[in-house]
Design goal:
The protein is mainly alpha-helical and 174 residues long. Helix content is 65%, strand content 0%. Residues 90-104 have low confidence and may be disordered.
Length: 174
């Protein structure tokens, strides 16, 4: 009996290691986009990914044909949303102030202008390619709300707010 369990445990560990080797890079990139941290300094993203992968490993034997990538992505989304809810009081209520230019990489600085909810929906829809219906079900929102938040986020990204208007110098007649 012990020998059988040891073999099952070793097989499970090999399968999970193969999954992580293939999926961890993309999942880390998605998590880095969610947290809006620079790719070379992303402790929140790495912590979030570690927790999601640990949960996926714990439920590995119960997946029964389910895609482990989907399970890990679902865990990332749920954990990010929960953390953002506690951090901001309510997911999506406060819009962070635009980050100063020159901080981090371009995509991260742009995403930092979005609320956590907008980032989450945008990453799920545009980066991960999750359907509106699946995104809505995952987040417990109506499909129309997901569509509206995604459209608002895209508008914010494509048409960033302009800075203050330049002041006109007074022309003194000579």
């Amino acid at each position: 009996m012990r020998e059988r369990r040891a073999l099952q445990s070793a097989r499970r560990a090999r399968e999970f290691e193969a999954f992580v080797a293939g999926a961890a890079g993309r999942l880390l990139h998605a998590t880095t986009l969610l947290t809006a941290e620079p790719p070379n300094a992303n402790p929140r993203a790495r912590r979030l990914l570690t927790l999601a992968l640990a949960h996926t490993y714990a439920s590995w034997d119960r997946l029964r044909g389910e895609d482990p990538y989907d399970r890990a992505r679902q865990q990332l989304a749920v954990r990010f949303a929960r953390g953002a809810w506690h951090q901001y009081g309510a997911l999506g209520r406060s819009r962070p102030s635009p980050s100063p230019s020159g901080s981090g990489s371009g995509s991260v600085a742009v995403l930092a202008r979005l609320t956590p909810q907008e980032r989450l929906i945008l990453v799920l829809r545009m980066y991960e390619g999750v359907a509106e219906e699946q995104t809505a079900a995952l987040l417990g929102l109506p499909v129309e709300r997901v569509r509206a938040i995604c459209a608002r986020a895209m508008t914010t990204l494509l048409h960033p707010p302009r800075g203050p208007a330049p002041t006109m110098a007074k022309v003194v007649p000579s």
